[in-house]
Amino acid sequence: MSEKQYYIPEGTYWPIIGSIGITTLLVGFANQMHGVSWGSSVMVLGFAITVFMLFGWLGQVVNESVNGKYNAQVDRSFRWGMSWFIFSEVMFFAAFFGALFYARTLSVPWLGGADNNVFTPELWNGFSASWQQIAFSTPGTVLQSGTAISIPTELVAATGLPALNTILLLLSGVTLTFAHHALRTDNRNHVVGWLIATIALGVAFLGFQVVEYGHAYATGLKLTSGIYGSTFYMLTGFHGFHVSLGVIMLTVILFRVQKGHFSSDNHFAFEGVAWYWHFVDVVWLGLFVFVYWV
Amino acid sequence: MTTATASHDTHHGPEKGLMRWVKTTNHKDIGTLYLWFAFSMLLIGGALAMGIRMELLQPGLQLMEPQFFNQLTTMHGLIMVFGAIMPAFVGLGNWLIPMMVGAPDMALPRMNNWSFWILPFAGGLLLSTFFMEGGAPAFGWTFYAPLSTTFAPDSTDFFIFAVHLLGFSSIMGAINIIATVLNMRAPAMKLMDMPLFVWTWLITSFLLIGAMPVLAGAVTMMLTDRNFGTAFFDATGGGDPVMFQHIFWFFGHPEVYIMILPAFGVVSHIIPTFSRKPLFGYSSMVYATASIAFLSYIVWAHHMFLTGMPVAGELYFMYATMLIAVPTGVKVFNWISTMWRGSMTFETPMLWAISFVFLFTIGGFSGLMLGIAPADIQYHDTYFVVAHFHYVLVTGALWSIIAATFYWLPKWTGKMYNESLAKIHFWWAVISVNVLFFPQHFLGLAGMPRRIPDYSLQFADFNFISSIGGFAFGASFILFTYIVFDCIRNGKPATARPWEGAKGLEWTLAPKAQYHSFNTPPSRELIESESQHS
After folding, report:
1. How far is residue A265's CA from residue A276's CA, in Å, rounded to a whole number?
2. What are the boundaries of each domain within chain A?
3. Chain B: residue whose CA lies nearest to A12
4. Over the stretch B51-73, which tens digit does the pLDDT of each residue have?
5. What is the largest CA-CA distance in chain A?
6. Where are the bilayer-spanning segments (chain B) (predicted)?
7. How far is A188 from chain B (nearest CA, A)?
8. CATH number attached to the domain at A72-293
9. Ramachandran bin of B13, using left for φ above 0, alpha for ψ from -120 to 50, beta for the remaining angles
10. Short-list A42, A271, A139, A234, CA closest to B231
11. How high is the ipTM of this complex?
12. Is the pTM value of this prediction over 0.90?
């Protein structure tokens, strides 16, 4: 076998720039949380460096790919890398789903006196262990962190916007598959059309999610609404963040399709983003069932 | 081969100057960076341990406030786990895996560079907490809520971000190793041809990718509980501090196997070499490793027997934990059977490997004792636990790292270390480490709690002995550092295969392995003749 079988990329400064960017971002964030005046500006600076790094690094990779430097082996390495990256994301969400299940089936009922905790009524007079409205007879009960608990006046319903959003995301998975199919048959106009449809569905999802948040907030469901508010906002919030990333990635892919970067048999970047989008889709199904529905 | 490829577009040699190390995409450069980083953190973490042992030399408070003592124990644990042991194994993986699977380099070299270059920043964030108002984290390396949420200093948020960064680095490192093993392996090498270090690291990578994101989730919940009013670990809002322990140990138990599986791999290379026999039970080693990895995900609550779990839970976690003894026992018997009737010699790596088998097994047995739920009521949070995990982590994980260093140092530097000094170092370390940790079993059985700077008078003698052993063990690293530097500067030239019985593709490379290991994949004949198992 020839030497050219292997490809090893040349060294770059992007990784160290990335480390500086992320560390600056986090140091700024921590100081901002502690009320230090320069916190937020350092945070913005760190964010800017990180975005600069992402553009530079990925831009270099795109250039090398377009210039034909990558062989089939590099392509396979990217595939392994992307799949296991997505798996690690799954496990990140699993931690929050785990918290949801644990609280719902164990800790909240225990607090309400299930099992053998016979003292609950005496310790916490008026405590109601209902899942969405963990409530006290005395309003203004304060968490250990010093924040007052906000008790929602309405329950979150699965019908309405969440159901609509489920349909939107599922549809976006279908349109993306159509786009992929068009790419494989070299029909670029159809690729562009279906990609735009996918992005539009993703943006619509995000828009409705903002409306939904506004509604939930108005009824008093906040991050500070006890464990339900915590899991609700952290799960849907991280999911919304991932949808936003997915929309950005799809948009980049759209531009790359228009620039003619992909051929019918060589378009890993497209597929990687598609995997990511389907992952985000599947996480939403879990959210819809366990956060909104049951 | 190096000179021939140096001019080639994609197979360049090292750059000149400092920037070589910043920009490098070379697995050997990155492995070296990892190993030196890990060694620096080992010395820092060790210095903190010396502080702990000085305070515990005598009963009473002599040197420090209890709060500072707690900072020392906490940071010692965090630095050793996340800064020393894990990066050291990633460093070994970087150096060795491409050579062992017949690849030129890692699969994703730029990401490899980033995995390393996040570490100094994360380590810096972690260490900087010592100089902040309220001091460093003082809630123990397991950072249980509410100690780490309600009652912790502001510096905890920096600690949280350091953990995020370390996790990010580990995940990228693990992805890279999976891609390397599965995609860069020489086409003629089947999975069941792979050396055990490669196998154990492959399986460890799956543990890392499964466990580290859960840790990231746990510290994210801590972050929002501390700063944004969530109630994950706050019973007032329906959360539960015990839930923190569940999430933490869902990460934490695979984590302990992350720190020991590659060690099993290292030892499985060294013992056959110096026994001049093929490894006994190669495939059972692979299956045992996979079984341990699987079991490690379903036993986490054996760290939590005293949290008031339902009895059914205690029983399940106890029996599941006991199961781990089966594959681990398979491994220990395989190592012993490999030595059985071998033509054994006792060069330094072999001394470390044999003492690993012996001392790690002590740590394994004390682990079995701790896994018995009713007995754990007595042992829990005592020095018995401290003795247990130091036997598995110091005389287990760290022992294998030192063994690996002596075993592959000739391949890394092209030179031999001073064998007689190295043997003195071994005996010094192996005696002092037992003086240090063995009495801690007795202290724990007698009821001395961990993480407390003062103790009752009846514990004075054993603590004194333990501290003396600790100082001697700490000092042994001065000699270790000298031996490594002496080897790099003045070592005699090594041959390509400095150990008579050594098998493995790495020994077919130049005495000091060339910059890119295999530009041409090794042939089936070579792979078969270099196989450690028949």
Report:
1. 20
2. 1-70, 72-293
3. B23
4. 999 999 999 999 999 999 999 99
5. 79
6. 33-54, 74-97, 117-139, 159-184, 196-223, 243-267, 279-300, 316-337, 349-373, 385-409, 421-442, 462-485
7. 31
8. 1.20.120.80
9. beta
10. A234
11. 0.94
12. yes
